[in-house]
Specification:
This protein is α+β, with helices and mostly antiparallel strands. The protein has five helices and 15 strands. Strands 3-6-8-9-10-11 form a six-stranded mixed sheet, covered by helices on one side. The chain has a three-stranded mixed sheet with strand order 5-4-7, with no helix packed on it. Strand 14 and strand 15 form a beta hairpin. The model has no long low-confidence stretch (mean pLDDT 91). It comes from Vasconcelosia minhoensis LEGE 07310.
């Protein structure tokens, strides 16, 4: 999801949450700033929808919940609120104390990259996500070319990086009993003369 220009006014987390409940638009909360999130592109939305469907079918009947862009995540260690593109949580879902709308325990987070969020998703946002005790796996998905980056937690302060760029590649998830086919994920997204681009 793209990030709009950040206002300079500083808010408390409580003020942010009160405003967010009343707002029709979603915003992140970072270091006292409320950062509005703009709408995504068709490619971004197709990838997000496809990943949600692939995970849902792959995990059907298993003790996991899948959430997409409208589900707020609280990162307690840095008191940050975000809306990841896709999250998977091992049940039971844990909520921020006193809230019914903010989860805290993802095992997998996936972000679909955009020009405005690419550096943030790889850098500061990933650093914040790594403070979540349950967080085990991170996917960065490029919606404009066949390319996925996978980060799997090995131990404290150690993550294994793997990248995928082949149409026949399959991602065996470490944090979930599921696999993702790049052919299925990118179907209808990258097309050239009726074929998926590689």
């Amino acid at each position: 999801m793209a990030i709009a220009s950040s206002p300079t006014e500083i808010y408390t987390a409580e003020e942010y949450l009160a405003l967010e409940v009343e707002s029709d638009l979603r915003s992140e909360y970072r270091n006292g700033a409320i950062v509005p999130m703009t709408g995504g592109t068709p490619e971004h939305n197709r990838i997000t929808s496809a990943l949600n469907a692939l995970l849902w079918f792959g995990l059907r009947g298993k003790p996991y919940s899948i959430f997409i862009t409208d589900q707020r995540l609280w990162i307690p260690a840095v008191d940050r609120y975000t809306y990841p593109d896709v999250m998977a949580i091992a049940n039971p879902v844990e909520l921020k104390p006193g809230r019914k709308d903010t989860v805290t325990n993802p095992v997998l987070i996936a972000e679909v990259l955009s020009d405005s969020t690419r550096a943030y998703d790889r850098g500061d946002k990933f650093e914040a996500y790594r403070t979540i005790p349950t967080f085990q796996e991170y996917l960065l998905i490029d919606p404009y070319r066949l390319h996925i980056e996978q980060f799997v937690k090995q131990s404290n302060n150690q993550w294994l990086f793997t990248e995928y760029s082949g149409l026949d590649d399959r991602i065996s998830l470490s944090s979930l009993p599921a696999e993702i086919s790049l052919r299925d994920l990118y179907e209808g997204v990258l097309e050239a003369d009726g074929e998926l681009e590689q």
